[in-house]
Please model this.
Amino acid sequence: MPNDKAKMSNEIQHIKPETRNPKPVTIIGGGLAGCEASWQLLKRGRTVCLYEMKPEVFSPAHKSSLLAELVCSNSFRSNSIENASGLLKEEMRLMGSLTMESADITSVPAGRALAVNRILFSRYIEDKLMSCKGLTIIRKEITEIPQDSIVIIATGPLTSDAAAKSISGITGSEHLYFYDAISPIVDGESIDYSKVFRASRYDDTGVGDYLNCPMTQSEYERFWTELMNGTEVSLKNFEDKKCFEGCLPVEVLGRRGMKTLLFGPMKPVGLVDPKTGKRPYAVVQLRQENKSSTLYNIVGFQTKLTWPEQKRIFRLIPGLKKAEFLRYGSIHRNTFINSPALLRNTLQLRSHDNMFFAGQITGVEGYVESAAMGLLAGVNVDRYLSGKELIPPPETTALGALVRHITNTDQKTFQPMNVNFGIFPPLSEKAPKKERGKHYAERSFSDLKKWKQKIE
Model:
């Protein structure tokens, strides 16, 4: 539930533009989100003070002193507009994104994906920003978030302990998380509904909240064997396995004994398969993630398996033989806020009009998604300083769908997410699967164009 400050959001008086703080916009964090927000403000004639703690302080994952450093990969994923990730990139190009400008200029061959030369990519962004009038870069760690100026907090998934403590003081400690324990999400249309049944435990009404994938003993034992032999992603040096004891990977639970999962995420207690009239030997539950039933979470299946292994092994679950994974499971260090409880769809704190959040700390996953939130934060702050209405992008766009996910999802089940068509509003008319991406893109570009005209 939102804290007391958040509950008072409707009582906050909007400051008149002529009395707003004339000081530069403070942006904390020189990653993709912070740099993109800076660019959007600078090209609109605003002054920016960008704080970056490198090289004074490095996070455990960062090595370069350059701004906009890419850490885990040089890939920005698909470049096709018929893919949600590619569509988001094209929307950002249309919005004049510095991230996409740099990525296109420094790209390297990667088939249908967009990949970049990491060093050239970061250097291009840093050089472009430093050539702008109105920018001051301060290389020091921020240990206290300033509350008397316009601030964009873009400290990223490895926010320093001091900054995290300050954010926690503003938002409430119960709304700040330091580790993701994420279960996979599958496309609702890829589930074989003839193999599953809907029910909640001990529910006699026949209308339950979960889809249940029942397993026989032989199916379970085959699944367990493959799970035990699956290839895992190695933890980074700064990711201590002890941190995950409260929410263990499904494969770690499985190693404690062949039947351990039967008393954990795969327990069949309280469930009866209507086809047999009996309790299954094991059950995997799928939880609906959105109102349109396009997203289903595999409950309790947080994992360190590699993505190909997740696809191979989890497709052994009855009903998921042809499952399309919209998000793979993971467990990794990631500082993020409970955005649905804290943020408006303008990326402003409900309790502080002058504080905006951007990047992965808002609960988006991925380089492009992080930069996209920086872009929107920059646009919104510019309008805020001008006394104009802050207008979120339409939910039918990739930009708008991401904002909707992080600000309008159930607070209790909120988890970080990459962009995917499952978080978009459904198409008004059904289209063949191969053409669906094209229809999403057409709708997006039409609505983005109208929105762009409004805000410009």
The CA atoms of residues 3 and 44 lie 35 Å apart.
